[in-house]
Design a protein that fits this description.
alpha/beta, Aspartate Aminotransferase, domain 2, globular
Length: 256
């Protein structure tokens, strides 16, 4: 065993014990793949601000912020107070309420490019709905995504998410590679892969598949590749090419 692993295990007996319990009830020992790593992940007990405290009492700076969703940090007093106030008025309604309208009005008023919006429970739901709407609006089946781009946890979003060198194809014709053996061939066939920040190649691919493409989806800042920003030329190319061919352009701005 590597000395670093030995040190990690000695450092985290509480997490090890919890991981052993988890292995008996969770497939693979965890219920959130993105937060799992070997030999087992550190388990947290509580958090405040930017400080996490694990089950062994170690304090750790949180650089993840739950994958960027906690802009105020943990247990921010104003957020805690608002949640406590709301929970006393009811947990969740299967009906509309004024708060959702007020929040939507606030967002639309602050962001010039947002005219209307729909709330979802996750980025996965949001991008999936956007792709489905694109197919319904255009009557086409295929979508184009960027090689290495992450748009959620469903088959089409994960095509070519982490392509294996040697199987990914060449730069001008990336291969629609599956994440695992669960991907239907039809999903791969309906997903066109484009290299990120390559405007000339993107324009060629869009033109080649123009009659079949319902949408092009892209992250203006690609999180899964290390927060790489798209160039202005690349985004402009996507906008102009999709407009020219009547294709929906989707910006996945969960990270941005």
């Amino acid at each position: 065993m590597h000395p670093i692993i030995e040190e990690y295990i000695a450092f985290s007996p509480g997490s090890a014990a919890l991981a052993k319990r988890a292995a008996s009830v969770f497939p693979g020992g965890d219920t959130r793949a993105s937060a799992h790593y070997g030999p087992y992940p550190l388990a947290m007990d509580h958090a405040e601000g930017c400080i996490l405290t694990d089950v062994d009492g170690h304090q750790i700076i949180d650089f993840m912020n739950n994958f960027t969703s906690l802009v105020h940090g943990h247990a921010f007093p104003a957020v805690v107070e608002a949640v406590q106030t709301q929970i006393a008025q009811g947990s969740a309604y299967a009906a509309p309420n004024e708060s959702q309208v007020a929040l939507a009005e606030l967002i639309v008023g602050r962001v010039p490019s947002i005219e209307q919006l729909r709330f979802t429970s996750s980025g996965t739901e949001g991008t999936n709905m956007a792709l489905r709407c694109s197919r319904a609006a255009t009557g086409r089946q295929k979508i184009m995504k960027m090689e290495g781009g992450y748009h959620g946890s469903y088959e089409q979003a994960e095509v070519a998410l982490a392509p294996i060198p040697g199987l990914r194809g060449d730069l001008e014709a990336p291969v629609s590679t599956p994440m695992d053996g669960s991907f239907p061939d039809s999903v791969l066939a309906d997903t066109v892969i484009c290299p990120y920040n390559e405007p000339e190649i993107a324009e060629k691919l869009i033109s080649r598949h123009a009659e079949e493409l319902a949408a092009v989806i892209v992250e203006p800042v690609m999180g899964s590749m290390g927060m790489v920003s798209a160039t202005t030329d690349f985004l402009r190319c996507l906008r102009e090419a999709t407009q020219r061919h009547g294709i929906i352009l989707i910006f996945d701005e969960v990270i941005t």
